[in-house]
Amino acid sequence: GDLANWIVPGKLVKGMGGAMDLVGAPGSRVVVTMDHTAKDGSPKILAECTLPLTGHKVVDRIITDLGVFDVDKKGGTGLTLVEIAPNMTVNEVREKTACHFEVVDGEVPWMDDVVDDA
Q1: What is the pTM of this model?
Q2: How far apart are the first and last CA of the chain?
Q3: Nearest CA among 36, 28, 29 for reference residue 101
Q4: Which residues of the chain have pLDDT under 50?
């Protein structure tokens, strides 16, 4: 449930913006949307953040191009895969994720197709 989004090593950054205020607001729901892997194919969902934190135990849900994870911020179950991209398998998602995650009971539903075929 940790979030690190304000600095990239070796890159010039003007500042952290307002993300720290937003994730720290009482009662806020934090949904992270991101690519599941970096350009080099390495996982971006990790067991522990390796960058300076924007917020500790603040993330409620992670939505990537491979799946949707609910986050247990209290630390009980960690991540739970609740939806999966069409034509992906749970094992393929595991291979591209650098931490353990649970899988929702039963068959994992596919993510809604957001591309309009028209």
Answers
A1: 0.80
A2: 37
A3: 36
A4: 114-118
